[in-house]
Amino acid sequence: MYNYYIFISLPVIAFLLEYLIVGGIQYRYHIVNLMGYISGLTERVFYGISGNFLSGLIFNVSTLLIISGIFMILSFIIVKISIYLFYAFFIYAVSSFISTGGLKHAAMEVYNKLKDNNITDARKNLISLAGRDGETLDVSEISRAAIESIAENTGDGIGSVFFYIAAGFLIGQWIKSGEGNWSASFPLVFALTSAVIYKTANLMDSLVGYKNERYMRFGKFSAKLDDMLNYIPFRLTAFFMILSVVILRVFSKNYDIKNALKSWKKFKNLHPSPNAGQLESVMAGSLRIKLGGINYYGGKISKRPVIGFEYYGRAGKEDILRGIRIMELASLIILIFYISTSASLLILH
User: Fold this and answer.
1) I need a labelling partner for 182 at 20 to 30 A (CA). Which of 41, 61, 150, 171 fits?
2) pTM greater than the 0.85 cutoff
3) What are phi and psi of 158, to 5 degrees?
4) Domain assignment of residue 153, given as a range
């Protein structure tokens, strides 16, 4: 039962730490940066062997095993030294995987530059937020790109992380309840490892999951695995985003519940990603703006269907603020849902 109290509290502390303190801080030895470094090394090794699908599959599985294995072994070593040191490590790692504060900070950087009519720096800041070319974008296109990034990252930077922490803990608890002399801390170690596996898969999709000449075959498995892992969490996150719009509507008419539902129903499957459209369609309807269209990545054009009805307007810089509020409130609802469901499990246990 003690494990359940820890299971509830540690991710909550990590969320608050990231949102209130470390979200906007960039530092060299960030865990995700180190995971990305390892992924980059293995990508060069396996792509050097072959750029085909099989090599990409082996790259993905090998990288997952290496990174998750490092974290699991390191976790058990830390547990042997001190369980409280492991709690601190757990909080540090999870706060690195969550991106509520970091996402808000990056989006506000873009908004503040646009507010100051500094479109040149806004384009530069957009690269770190959305990872796309911004040299030719106007204010509306920069705003659209920022809002799309806010929507998608609400899923993979918040909703999916909490989903896999919970799933990992429950699987670890189930394994521990069977035969074998498992440590009492095993469910927590498995919860962290589960989040690491998800974040690594997400990183590899960001690294190689592109439909370009280099990664069309090599990155296919990484892209499909990321789609599969995000399938349930993104749909739950879309529901939480709609709930956040319902609440925000009470305080402001700038949020549209009816259009959020209409847009989600009609446009959720139009995005090239089977998951991102779930969140972008809710965001488009909530703000009554058009998302999607033409983007540029590495100088290459990417044409996507427009998400939003004909009567929706173009995105503006103030829509970035409204998108941030939806993301923040949806994150809070996810946190409350995590606490309440975990507490229910504690009572049942």
Assistant:
1) 61
2) yes
3) -135, -65
4) 2-348
